[in-house]
Design goal:
Number of domains: 2
Number of helices: 10
CATH architecture of the largest domain: 3-Layer(aba) Sandwich
Strand content: 15-25%
Structural class: alpha/beta
Distance between the termini: 58 Å
Helix content: 40-55%
Strand order of the largest sheet: 1-2-10-7-8-9
Order of helices and strands: HEEHEHEHEHEHEHEEHHEH
Amino acid sequence: MIIEEINYRLNERVLEIGNFIGNTPLFEIKNLTSNGVRIFAKLEWQQLSGSVKGRPAYEIIKNAIFNGQLNSGKKLLDASSGNTAIAYAAIGAAIGVPVSICLPENASEERKLILKAYGAEIIYTSKFGGTDEAQDKARQLFLDFPDKYFYADQYNNECNWKAHYEHTAKEILSQTNGEITHFVAGLGTTGTFIGTTAGLKKEIPQLTSISLQPDEALHGLEGWKHLETARVPGIYNPNTADFNLSINTYEAIGLIPVISKKEGLLVSPSSAANLLGALEVARTIDNGTIVTVFPDNAEKYGEILKTIL
């Protein structure tokens, strides 16, 4: 009876926390465009956990709890470069689920401090292996201790892209009154791009979707993947994008102070990279409404800000 009562309370609490996930504002970029094209960005840091990763992390956790995979006796385990880890940790702290994260040791100090503040266990992996090695470590821990962990496996978990299919896309459709013509987003776990595109095209089949990738393997866009050289996430569908664009890290980072001074937003490198892609798309069309995603703001990128501001 005690275990049943604990699990019932866990179910109730996770539903309550859902009220603080998603429903982020759509911000129009007005001072960096000159033609008839409108560009909007979803300010994804304005939800619990402070990034777009709150969406898939919540759906993964909620689904696992309701399916009995993540009960009161297990820890949530996954690999992450930072934002998903923080989302797991924040939501886990709020509902009373312990979290263990396999994290590349070169993750920013801000991310490490935030994870520790939320009480997450950090299992460091080599900076040279990136998130691929972190995934291997997490998978092995799960195989060694299946009764101890629920392995969330964000790169292959269908809840990742479904969170955006069910919610992000619907929010964008409502906020643009269905007038969106182009969706632009970078590829990391690929969940944001795959799920949002699928949800948008269900209602607007003629919509054009453009995926963004770093232009080289050794890039500085945390959370992004150069899919030609990295392990391709299981949820990725290469046929989803109508077009693909390559983004240069230095150009993206150089755009950060421009965005802050022209638009009043301090954004992360990945957010700036998404806007850089949207601006490139805008230059190729005469009219339309482009929507992109700003995954997080600049608060976890202090070292980068010091070098450019």
